[in-house]
Amino acid sequence: MSFSLTLTVNGETRAIDLDDPRVTILDLLRERLHLTGSKKGCDRGQCGACTVLVNGRRVNSCLALAVSLDGADVLTIEGLARGDALHPVQAAFIDHDGFQCGFCTPGQIMSAVGLIREGQAGDDPERVREGMSGNLCRCGAYIGITQAVLEAQARLASEQGEAA
Amino acid sequence: MPDIAYEQARHGSSIGQPLTRRDGILKVTGAATYAADNRPEGLLHAVMAVSRIARGRVTHLDVAAAKGHPGVVAVMTGANAPKLAQDPDAKDNPFMFRLDLLQSDQVRYAHQPIAVVIAETLEAATEGAELLAPRYAVEPARIGLDVEAPQEPEAVGAGDKTRASRGDVEAGLAEAERRIETVYETAAQYHNPLEPHAVVAQWDGDRLIVDTPSQALATAQMRLAALFGLDPKNVLVRSPFLGGGFGSKGFLFGPQVLGVMAAKLVGRPVKLVLRREQMFGPVGHRAETRQTLRLGTDASGALTALDHHTLTATSSFDDFYEPASALSRYLYAAPAVSTGHSGVRVDTGTPLFMRAPGEASGSVALEGAIDEMAEACGLDPLDFRLKNYAEAEPISGRPFSSKALRECYAQGAARFGWDKRAKAPRSMRDSAGRLVGYGVGTALFPALMMQAEARAEIRADGTGTVALGAHDMGQGAWTALAQIAADGLGIDLDRLDFQSGRSDLPNAGIAGGSAHTATAGSAIHSATSAVLAQLAELATGDERSPLYGAGNAGVFARGGRLLRRDDEGRGESFADILARAGRASVSAEGKAAPDPASREAYAMHAHGAVFAEVSVDPDFGQIRVTRLVGAFAAGRIVNPRLVTSQYYGGMIWGVSFALHETAVLDPRSGRVMNANLGEYHVPVNADVPAIEAILVEEHDPHVNPLGIKGVGEIGITGTAGAIANAVYHATGIRVRKTPITLDRLLG
Amino acid sequence: MNRFDYVRAGSVAEAVAAAAEPGAAYLAAGTNLLDLMKGGITRPTRLVDVTHLPGLDRIEALPGGGHRVGALVRNSDLAYDAEFARAYPAVAEALLSGASAQLRNAATLAGNLMQRTRCPYFYDPASACNKRDPGAGCDARGGETRLHAVLGWSERCIATHPSDLCVPLVALDAVVEIAGKAGTREVALEAFHRLPGDAPERETVLEPGEMIVSLRLPQDAAAFAGHSRYLKIRDRTSYAFAVVSASAALRLEGGRIGAARLALGGVALKPWRARAAEAVLAGAEPGEASFRAAADAALAEARPSGDNAFKIELARRLIVRTLTLAAAGTPERMLALPASAFADGSALHA
């Protein structure tokens, strides 16, 4: 049995024939579309390393079946930068050393992008910490992560302000 | 002459700079390639089936059911697994650990691999492994520290002495004005790097390429060569990035070898990635401990005796004993000190090095006991530590190569506001009425040196290469070692081709023991110095050079030029020197090893002081670490940005140790009941509101040519104890068992 | 994960028909179902995907008061719906204290009601579990039981229901609207989940094939908006299941408690409505004395199921605190750390 679905991945619309309904979005990205930036840390929605944006919202891609997301718009870490220009969240993670081993980083960054879009944390560090708590960092880069999110949030807010 | 090492190394401007990570862009764009991201042509997926019992035998596997699942290519069991050239149970040296490679139907711990299913897709392999539905002959699991009479092991940790002592502890205790005896227990912990162990293996005849995260590339290469009967030259192990290691990737473990065997069996490349629950068993852990400490002081509060005994557990089939008492050999001054260990055998996987092995567990017990003793003496915990400050290493009596612990205490206390600590427990509250506590712990980690090699080259175009099989597990080797390399060659970083992370480069040793930067950095220093010596010889011996006659010692390198020490205005570019000599390049190899003479003469440790503030809900016992300040002195700092991150990370491991981490074993089955990241808790972002790390200046002329001590593990020491002591100060309840969970504070 | 038929339902009727087959399961976000399938805990032979059904993702104000929330409304959408959160602040607080932002963005209302216990023995296929395998026994008995039930458990099962959301919902008399082959029916949420008794494998009153289509908050539920809190004791500051949680909602009238609603989470195999405590509070003067009496009443029948006696005292203290905070008034803005003892708005004494 084959399943035909359409997904927009990092802006590109793709027709996908799936031979197996068991494939999660994470495994589809990693094993079939060869977008390995999203990481599998637990495969059970408990670590956040697989976080991607689906229809603009951050979710654990390990806990979503690809067949069920027919028609969805998926943004992964590979689609975040504009050419050579890093997204402000990416740049801030480098500046604030918001990672060590880097394995949780794609998920942290996508989660941060989602958090900023949700608009619930603003410039409150405590709300950022709470909002980023679905992303484990075993190296313990939380201080840099929080600083990076706050800085990127401020930068995006001011860019938005200038654009308006 | 403390300045010699610095002078030699101070060619350029990289060392000491807080550069951002050179691999940063790769990591924030998802382009950094971890083992499981590799996809050679024709790749198959392998999934392990693991034992659900802790002891007994596998009596049946439904291989037919697994094979019948669409997409399954092969099922590897003991019956058809490729023959190995080396017995997986062989143990030629203490650093060789026994592996479970389907060599028998015996089960010796839960989550032991018992078969591997190989399939065209990950989904098929996963279900194939499920369909094996193993049956067992079960024997009762032997679990816990009281399972049998303890034995004294021959060695603990990495070949450390089981016992060490000085003076007569019993006499010291007898003559003491005050005595305490106290018992601390620490839980079993599993490393759980976010990246599970993974392997992508490809065979080409008798050549083998393995992508797998490794903290010891050469060791992995040699073990693979031995197991498969290969010439080591034909084994290439690649590990450019590790998704965290923390000790669990220091050795090649069974599952990684099984991936290689699977690839051999099917004749195609295979990828095998551990499922998260499989990280709780076959890839090492930190064993539980029960530590008994006896302390005595005289009337002034000076220690008269310190006795530290650790009971821990190893597996039924191999030896690794958590060396938790060793810390007491290094830290506090006492005329009589005794340290020892004993162990029992249990039906778990073999415990192994986990970030600050021994020191972490020992520290929480020792710092707790010191805190108890301080209170018994009526002294401020910091004053008590200063009163018992060791001017020489307590048991060996050797002087310290350097020790800026006093400065750590002072700077940390000032920054933290230790003077605002109320003396009595349970006497501080925040404005919301929560209990507040302050605690302090001393941090210490030995400044180790291991062995490493490196190769360096300077080319006629003025660029250089430094190559070695070093390991970046997040500590920042791609950056810090490159900084050392650039300075060593006297070129700018952007002129440097830094090669690392592969076993076909010079053996950079092990990324462990917080010694990688010191060791690999020293090898780089040695190689680059040798290259510069060759260049200097070409220049200073040539009348046409402005450096003629300066002598090798009379020149140094900076910005791609050799300059006269006595006159920096006179110099010559590397390119010019090589061009005139008609050479395309000069290259050299360098080595690093511990210097036996200085190691004999001096005790070498990094030190620190950690101050913790906790907030405790008085009704619920729920704890939050609201503030941590750590001040650490670890010799020369290669990159303060990365070092600060290492301290943060270590201190967060301290939070985890004190409050969160515990593998909950069902004593009846021997299974870890929380083998997942939802219930095996490590701190989340909200658990870590505020941390500061102070980099205390320290010069050490003895540890190694670069003056570097390690920073990767020290942060966990001191911190867990400081938090536990702060919880006591907040609540008046002394919990001698970590993790300190809220139920232990309900009173 | 086993192979399964994947059926995408085009209508509720189609879904109900497809799910009536033995071995079928509904798939919404799948955040719990996929976890269970990956662990080999459940092996459904057919997944009926209801995520594309139209109309089930709406939050509607009902003409006579109250709200209807569609089965597919995502946790975060519900929590951040300004009107809903104003009317039922404790529900929003509970939602935001649950799981992680990523899971809340995916997880649905119906999925939350249907989530299975986190009992480690249920999650361990090698352990005996009467839920998974009726009659097999319960390995949790005599095992690691720190987080197990203290109310309503039986010798056959001592698990707890892990939901945060259900706790304030059950306190507010929410009603589950269910579609089945024979049409629709309504069940009070309080009666929706079953205590284990002799049949812990039957977790809800749903009949095979029945599907939750929506949840209704009755007209009087919003009357508690001014004095509503949810509080959750956890082993981590965030992203952890409750050790114990409580939702309290008060209607204060002339310095007295006109009506009180109280429910507990993490103590039983269902969200636990503490009606005896509500009776103690009704008409009483708000304050420590009445709150303590209520706490005692709520836990009067509690007994440890293992190494978890501490939860009984913890629940008492939590009830007193939650009532105290509710009496002090609902915070104007969602707290930075929702439902946390460390949230700014959770000071111990007013």
Automatic annotation (TrEMBL), chain A:
Keyword Transferase in annotation: no
Gene3D superfamilies, per database record: 3.10.20.30, [2Fe-2S]-binding domain
One protein family per Pfam: Fer2
Superkingdom assignment: Bacteria
Alphabetized PROSITE patterns for the sequence: 2FE2S_FER_1 (PS00197), 2FE2S_FER_2 (PS51085)
Coiled coil location: none
Record's keyword terms, sorted: Iron, Metal-binding, Oxidoreductase
Domain 2Fe-2S ferredoxin-type positions: 3-80
PANTHER family: OXIDOREDUCTASE WITH IRON-SULFUR SUBUNIT, OXIDOREDUCTASE, IRON-SULPHUR BINDING SUBUNIT-RELATED-RELATED
Name the record gives this protein: (2Fe-2S)-binding protein
The organism of origin for this protein: Methylorubrum zatmanii
TrEMBL record, chain B:
Alphabetical list of PANTHER family matching this protein: DEHYDROGENASE, XANTHINE DEHYDROGENASE
Gene3D superfamilies to which the protein is assigned, alphabetical: Aldehyde oxidase/xanthine dehydrogenase, a/b hammerhead, Aldehyde oxidase/xanthine dehydrogenase, molybdopterin binding domain
Pfam annotation, one family: Ald_Xan_dh_C
Name of the protein this chain belongs to: Xanthine dehydrogenase family protein molybdopterin-binding subunit
Species of provenance: Methylorubrum zatmanii
Aldehyde oxidase/xanthine dehydrogenase a/b hammerhead domain boundaries: 29-140
InterPro entries: Ald_Oxase/Xan_DH_a/b, Ald_Oxase/Xan_DH_a/b_sf, Ald_Oxase/xanthine_DH-like, AldOxase/xan_DH_MoCoBD1, AldOxase/xan_DH_MoCoBD2, AldOxase/xan_DH_Mopterin-bd_sf
Automatic annotation (TrEMBL), chain C:
Domain FAD-binding PCMH-type: 1-222
Keywords of the record: FAD, Flavoprotein
InterPro entries named in the record: CO_DH_flav_C (IPR005107), CO_DH_flav_C_dom_sf (IPR036683), Diverse_Substr_Oxidored (IPR051312), FAD-bd_PCMH (IPR016166), FAD-bd_PCMH-like_sf (IPR036318), FAD-bd_PCMH_sub1 (IPR016167), FAD-bd_PCMH_sub2 (IPR016169), Mopterin_DH_FAD-bd (IPR002346)
Record carries keyword Flavoprotein: yes
SMART domains: CO_deh_flav_C
Annotated PROSITE patterns: FAD_PCMH
SUPFAM superfamilies in the record: CO dehydrogenase flavoprotein C-terminal domain-like, FAD-binding/transporter-associated domain-like
Protein name: FAD binding domain-containing protein
